[in-house]
Specification:
By secondary structure, the chain is an alpha/beta fold. The protein is about 50% helix and about 10% strand. The protein has a five-stranded parallel β-sheet with strand order 2-1-3-6-7, with helices on both faces. Strands 4-5 form a two-stranded antiparallel ribbon. Bound molecules: fe (ii) ion (FE2).
């Protein structure tokens, strides 16, 4: 039936299936009921069909209903509600943690109210999906905004065009090599692509000056991490992006700026971006010198590992280049 809610019931107890079906008797136009009695049967059905909701018994002859919630299923396609004959808080918590939409204890009342329950659960699922889609869209807009901000800096400083993007590529690759978790990697992505955004307030002639900067000019340039911190402080990022950006010129021995932080007082994300920044800067052309090449860049980080740069980060970076890492713009 078109527009009907497709409900897959997985239960090896024929009497329970019968009771559930009977509850839907007066709602036949609104629901399509499909039944399977084993986990294998349900899996086979789900390979080629996407029901609107699955009501699955906990204990099946060939496994448990929770196995239908394995991470490799396409969780976005259909919700699963687990049913048991005996209430058990531990099972309920386990079901929800595994990704079940809900957990039901079988009883005559539960069966009788199943149509109302399915309507509510189906509506809830649609809200969850809509919310997830909105979050993904919002995340995309955030990343696009961040990339536009990054481009704004490079428009003012064409001599270092692509610098932030390349630092971002290397920093993210180092984070991957160090097997950092997704949230940390996401913070590194945003912070690295914006790390020089504070240069937007530095006079363009200093940024593109072909010769050595005098002390006053250098002092002004050195303000860019703090300016970036202030620019980003009103944005509620999930990770400490503004602090990472603020610390991207700190060095492990305390010789960096703006605060002269040392070792682990510097955020790991900032220590990673520092190494990526140095490698990209040395290997690329600058207004005041030609490109020195990747070998010189790797020499710089390896000879100063532990002194200026985090040795674990340096090691991961060297491994990446040994395995063929290349900047990709
Ligand atoms: Fe910088």
């Amino acid at each position: 039936m078109k527009n009907a809610v497709n409900v897959l019931i997985v239960d090896d107890d024929d009497a329970h299936i019968e009771l559930i079906k009977r509850a839907f008797d007066s709602h036949r136009a609104s629901f399509n009921l499909l039944t399977e009695s084993t986990l294998a049967g349900a899996r086979l059905y789900l390979q080629n069909n996407i029901p609107n909701i699955v009501l699955c018994d906990w204990l099946l002859p060939d496994g448990t209903g929770i196995e239908l919630l394995s991470p490799d299923r396409n969780a976005a396609l259909f919700p699963v509600v687990l049913m048991t004959s005996h209430g058990n808080e531990e099972l309920a918590v386990g079901a929800m943690k595994a990704g079940a939409l809900d957990y039901l204890v079988k009883s005559p009342d539960t069966f009788a109210n199943m149509p109302d329950f399915v309507v509510r659960a189906h509506r809830e699922w649609k809200h969850i999906i809509a919310r997830k889609e909105a979050e993904v869209k919002l995340q995309q807009v955030l990343l696009q905004t961040v990339e536009s901000l990054s481009l704004m800096v490079e428009k003012r400083d064409p001599f270092t065009a692509g610098h932030q993007k390349k630092v971002c590529q290397l920093a993210c690759a180092i984070a991957g090599e160090m097997k950092l978790d997704e949230k940390v990697k996401s913070g590194i992505y945003i912070a690295s692509i914006l790390h020089d955004i504070g240069k937007i307030s530095i006079p363009a002639e200093y940024l593109s000056k072909p010769g050595t900067l005098d002390p006053v000019e250098f002092t002004i340039i050195k303000a860019h991490p703090q300016i970036a911190y202030e620019m980003l402080s009103s944005i509620d990022f999930d990770s400490p992006v503004m602090k990472i950006v603020q610390q991207h010129h700190e060095k492990c021995n305390g010789s960096g700026y703006p605060f002269g932080l040392k070792q682990r007082d510097i955020l790991l994300e900032a220590r990673i971006i520092t190494v990526a920044d140095v490698v990209e800067a040395i290997s690329s052309h600058r207004p005041y010198r030609p490109a020195l090449g990747i070998d010189a860049a790797l020499q710089e980080i390896s000879s100063n590992a532990g002194e200026l740069y985090d040795p674990d980060v340096v090691e991961a970076c060297l491994r990446l280049f040994k395995n063929g890492f290349k900047f990709n713009i």
